[in-house]
Design brief:
- It is a single chain.
- The protein has 189 residues and is α/β, with parallel strands linked by helices.
- It folds into 2 domains: 10-118, no CATH class; 120-187, no CATH class.
- 15% of the residues lie in helices and 47% in strands.
- The protein is built from 4 helices and 15 strands.
- The N and C termini lie close together (11 Å).
- GO terms for molecular function: acyltransferase activity, transferring groups other than amino-acyl groups; metal ion binding.
- Keywords: Acyltransferase, Metal-binding, Transferase, Zinc.
- Its cofactor is Zn(2+).
Length: 189
């Protein structure tokens, strides 16, 4: 059996260096709240407000380190609350996505694009992928859950020697399957 730990990804934002400066002040550096499952990634102590056409979230957690482009990842339910209609995309693929207003303690920024519903995916270290015969960008079928078990299709394999084995689904998907952080998923094909 190919078992993978599950990480439930709540709404969060990745900020560019320029947007960190605009929202928190020139030269500002994010403070680590806790390390995440992927090496070098962390949840920051800092949060920002996110304001859409219909609603807002006052404290959206920033994930670090800084990225090349700002990206807000929300569930479909979050998107309805904000009044935006983002596509399901792999992280980093933000071209043509909706924008949103961000507010921090030192300023605000209106991003023109960057809001996505993250495609469900599994991070594989290259050794894990090789052992199981899995290729980068391969689409997988995965079973999660207990009494509310769900089979997810179109789960994107992301392979790198910089990754640690972990499946990422959003809160809508986790709630539908009755899954929590640390549960296991089984790769079926």
């Amino acid at each position: 059996m190919k078992k993978v730990p599950v990480g439930v990804s709540a709404r969060h934002i990745h900020l560019s260096v320029d947007h960190i400066a605009a929202l928190f002040g020139a030269g500002y550096e994010l403070k680590v709240l806790k390390d995440l499952s992927q090496p070098g990634q962390f949840a920051a102590e800092e949060t920002v407000a996110v304001i859409g056409p219909k609603g807002k979230f006052d404290k959206v957690r920033i994930l670090g380190p800084a990225r090349g482009k700002t990206q807000l990842e929300v569930s479909r339910t979050d998107a309805f609350s904000l009044g935006v209609n983002p596509p399901v995309r792999e992280s980093g693929n933000i071209a043509g996505t909706p924008g949103i207003k961000l507010v921090g303690p030192a300023g605000e920024v209106e991003i023109e694009e960057g809001v996505i519903v993250a495609a469900r995916h599994i991070h594989f270290h290259t050794e894990d992928a090789a052992r199981w015969g899995i290729q980068d960008k391969q689409k997988l079928t995965v079973r999660v859950g207990g009494e509310r078990a769900v089979i997810f299709e179109e789960v994107v394999a992301r392979v790198s020697d910089q990754y640690a084995l972990d499946m990422h689904i959003d809160t809508d998907e986790a709630n539908a399957a009755g899954v929590k952080n640390g549960d296991e998923a089984e790769i079926l094909s």
